[in-house]
Design brief:
The protein is of the alpha/beta class and 242 residues long. The protein is 32% helix and 32% strand. It folds into 2 domains: 124 residues, Rossmann fold; 106 residues, OB fold (Dihydrolipoamide Acetyltransferase, E2P) (Beta Barrel).
């Protein structure tokens, strides 16, 4: 996986680079102390992943991502945890708070590798003439969704949450491997029981039966913390009786 690191702190640059070398399978193509200096490099080179600090001079990491038309996968690396929700709203792979523990770094890289695999699969089926979408029978507690070239049957009560990733959805179930489909949020929401599945963010639908806890503006399912968008918060809290 080809990476670049953008951080104005030399110590942080060195730590992330050493983590990449220790882990293996990661090639650090270049490091930058100013995000603006990296734009041309990203456009001209096969960059898979960007490690990006937030608080930097001239332009911060969040503004930098918003300014780009097309971005590689990116992981925010920062000493400021208050930006976490905004970071995830920009579809960051992860949000690492400094000092970054090595085991936490490994978990982020695994997420990035998984997302690269998903993008690769999407590229393979892009242009496929078979319709996306799906069919279902919620009375019988299942739905079918199109995934790659198969129609996959999913038990509704086994769905934990659904994550939107631009043009496709990632359905997280009680099985180990998530299911990828080109359905829209509206299409899949229409096929699910509205009492159990709530839209809590522009990028997330959750099964309320699988919620472990609610922490202010986050929902915890297993070890995953899902942000609650401001425009969805009032309805969600009312629906769950809070």
């Amino acid at each position: 996986m080809n990476c670049i690191i953008i951080d104005d702190e030399p110590l942080a640059l060195g730590i992330i680079r050493s983590y990449c070398e220790d882990l293996g399978g990661l090639s650090v193509l270049e490091v930058f102390t100013n995000p603006l200096d990296s734009i041309d490099f990203i456009q001209r080179n096969p960059v898979d992943l960007v490690f990006l600090d937030i608080e930097m001079p001239q332009i911060n990491g969040i503004e930098f991502i918003k300014s780009m038309e097309k971005t590689p996968l990116f992981i925010f690396t920062t000493a400021y945890p208050q930006y976490a929700i905004e970071g995830f709203e920009l579809n960051a792979i992860d949000y690492l708070v400094k000092p970054i523990p090595f085991p936490r770094f490994i978990k982020s890289i695994n997420r990035a590798k998984e997302m690269l695999e998903i993008r690769s699969n999407i590229a393979k089926i892009d242009g496929n003439t078979a319709p996306a979408g799906g069919v279902g029978n919620t009375e019988n507690n299942f739905i079918f969704v199109k995934s790659d070239y198969d129609n996959v049957k999913i038990k509704v009560n086994e769905i934990k949450y659904i994550q939107g990733l631009k043009d496709y959805l990632k359905i997280h179930t009680q099985e180990n491997k998530p299911i990828l489909t080109l359905m829209s949020f509206k299409d899949i929401h229409d096929k699910l029981p509205s009492n159990d599945f709530l839209r809590v963010h522009r990028s997330f639908i959750v099964n309320v039966n699988n919620i472990d806890s609610i922490q202010r503006s986050r929902i915890v399912i297993d070890d995953v913390r899902i942000p609650i968008g401001e425009s969805y918060k009032e309805d969600f809290m009312r629906r769950v009786g809070l």
